[in-house]
Each structure stands twice: as structure tokens, then as C-alpha cells.
Design the sequence.
């Protein structure tokens, strides 16, 4: 089995959720995946991931995402019993993505109609498929008249995982959460890309100023929450847990919410900020285990 370790900030909820996403993805792509956090050196906390085979599992996941194509998985006109939520919403359709050489992966925790929280943070005129495409492929501005006449695409406005991977795969593999790029709309998981006025002193969103964050965090956090949810309580307070033993996905999912009491772990809590109808993840603080 191959072992990889990547830096992680435990106070960044999106990064912790994305670590679970790496674990889920490595299990799908390679099999026999296990992952856990190592905080033996507080100055160098990392997530350790291993999976079957010889390739670096982090690199395998990133290479897959760099080549993947997405599409909405359902239609808002479909019968209600075919949609995860009670009522179909064309802006929250589940997505499916693949690279053409394996069965497609389907994600849609934001449309969960079960008793679990859907943990849908984005709102407005953004669709899940549009956000996923932006995180994977970046966003291009509309082509100018001259570009349209020459049948040329518009200029690249923000980079996605594909551009970051092709530009420097070694750097992205070594520190996938630390390679930042300008971000437009996202799933709102990475607090470094929050476009509220809390840290900046003004609203970057209102002034159309881009902020830097990680599309890797955004996309893999969405994958990590497909089968797990942090604990969301009153007043938009959210709790999650980091564990320090290598676990397969089926155990890591309950570990994220502290459902394995005997497991050595660290507990964190953050508050969801509001920007219009959007909920935005903020940085967490550590708490004593309950």
C-alpha cells in the first residue's frame, strides 16, 4: 500500500471535510483506503492517507479530478420520488462526474431528503453543477466580439483543479490545500475564500473583488460530506471531530461527528456566517471533548 501525507489546518473546517473527501475518493479509485490525522507535531499537522497499489493516492485523486467532466444527474421535471429531496430543485440537482475510464461518481449531499441535515450552504442563482465545473475547470469570462467572430474562448478568469494540476502537479500533490487561486462562487466550505465583511473590513463580493481559496478544498469537502455530516445545532453552530488513527471510510464517517468515543480525537466548533441567503464556513476553535 502507498502512503501519502498532506498538510492540514484543523481549524479550517473545509480542509478537514476535504480530508474525508480524499479518503472517500481514494477508496473509490484505488480501494482499501484508510486515513487519519497526525498532530504529534503541532507545527506540522497532516492527514495521512494510504490505499491499495503503489501510486501516491493523493496524486491519483487529483489527476482523476483534473480530467473529470461533470453533468447534472437529474431533471427538475423528474417525478418527486426520483429526486433525493422531497421537491426537485434545478439549482440543487445532484451531479455525476467521471473520466470515461470508470463508472461515474455521483454527489448530492446538498439535495439530501433524508433525516440528515443536507448542509447546503450556497444559494441564489448558482447551481451545484455550475459550482462543481468551476472548481474542476475554472471559469472563463465571456468572449469579446472579436473572440466570438474568431470562434475563440474567453479569457480564463479563475483556475480550477485542472489548471492547478497541469501547471505544477508536484506542488499540488505535496500541499493540495495550500495552493490557492482566485475564486468566484463556490460551495462556501473554505473560510479563506469567505466574501463577507468580517475579516476584510468591507465586502469583497459587493465590490466584485476576487478572493483566494482552494478549489481542492471546495470540491473534496463536497465529496467528504456525501456520507457524513458535521453536527449542526441552533444558532448555526457546527461541530466536527478529527481522529488520529487510520480508518476506512465506513468508520471515518461517524468519527467526523465524534460517534466513536473510544477513538483518540480532537473536537472543534465553528459558526456559519450569513451573506444574504448564503451560509459561509468560518474558522473553528478547539473545544474540550464532551
Sequence:
Amino acid at each position: 500500500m502507498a502512503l501519502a501525507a498532506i498538510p492540514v489546518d484543523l481549524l479550517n473546517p473545509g480542509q478537514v471535510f476535504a480530508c474525508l473527501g480524499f479518503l472517500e475518493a481514494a477508496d473509490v479509485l484505488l480501494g482499501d483506503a484508510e486515513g487519519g490525522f497526525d498532530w504529534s507535531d503541532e507545527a506540522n499537522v497532516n492527514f495521512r492517507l494510504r490505499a491499495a497499489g503503489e501510486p501516491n493516492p493523493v496524486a491519483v485523486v487529483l489527476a482523476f479530478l483534473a480530467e473529470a467532466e461533470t453533468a447534472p444527474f437529474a431533471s427538475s421535471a423528474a417525478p418527486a420520488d426520483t429526486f433525493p429531496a422531497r421537491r426537485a430543485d434545478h439549482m440543487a440537482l445532484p451531479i455525476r462526474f467521471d473520466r470515461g475510464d470508470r463508472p461515474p461518481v455521483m454527489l448530492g449531499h446538498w439535495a439530501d431528503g433524508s433525516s440528515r441535515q443536507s448542509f447546503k450552504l450556497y444559494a441564489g442563482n448558482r447551481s451545484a453543477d455550475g459550482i462543481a465545473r468551476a472548481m474542476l475547470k475554472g471559469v472563463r469570462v465571456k468572449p469579446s466580439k472579436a473572440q466570438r467572430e474568431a470562434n475563440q474562448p474567453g479569457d480564463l478568469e479563475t483556475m480550477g483543479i485542472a489548471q492547478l494540476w497541469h501547471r505544477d502537479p508536484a506542488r499540488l500533490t505535496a500541499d493540495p490545500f495550500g495552493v490557492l487561486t482566485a475564486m468566484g462562487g463556490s460551495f462556501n466550505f473554505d473560510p479563506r475564500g469567505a466574501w463577507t465583511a468580517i475579516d476584510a473590513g468591507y465586502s469583497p463580493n459587493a465590490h466584485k473583488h476576487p478572493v483566494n481559496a482552494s478549489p481542492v478544498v471546495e470540491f473534496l469537502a463536497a465529496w467528504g460530506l456525501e456520507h457524513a455530516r458535521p453536527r449542526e445545532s441552533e444558532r448555526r453552530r457546527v461541530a466536527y471531530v478529527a481522529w488520529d488513527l487510520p480508518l476506512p471510510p465506513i468508520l471515518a464517517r461517524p468519527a467526523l461527528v465524534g460517534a466513536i468515543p473510544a477513538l483518540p480525537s480532537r473536537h472543534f466548533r465553528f459558526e456559519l456566517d450569513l451573506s444574504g441567503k448564503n451560509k459561509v464556513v468560518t474558522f473553528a476553535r478547539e473545544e474540550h471533548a464532551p
